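Deliverable D5.2: sample structural annotation.
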Amino acid sequence: AEFTNRCFHYAMMERGPVQLNIPRDHFYGDVTAKIPAPMVIERSAGGPEAIAQAAALLASAKNPVIISGGGVVMADGVDQVVKLAESLKVPVCSTYLHNDSFPTDHPLWMVA
């Protein structure tokens, strides 16, 4: 039951194909098990509730840092990250091999 729940969870997160291998000898006999409902995960772009929580966390953080990487580049979101960093006055670091995710000449860019 636990592994079945994990498979549903991974499938709901859209991490890729999910496969559950059940050994043949587990098909014989009776088992009483409760499979918990899958966890509901908001899409990666963030629903209103997730965005509100993220904004509250950023606003109350003592030393916030934005980590910008490949997802920003693929989503064509560099300008949005620049606007967010400037509005919050928060430094930005780029992930490995993604210096293109934030302007390297920007004063809020954290030089490695």
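Annotation notes: The beta strands are 66-68, 92-94. The mean pLDDT is 84.
The annotation will be released with the project's public dataset once the embargo ends.
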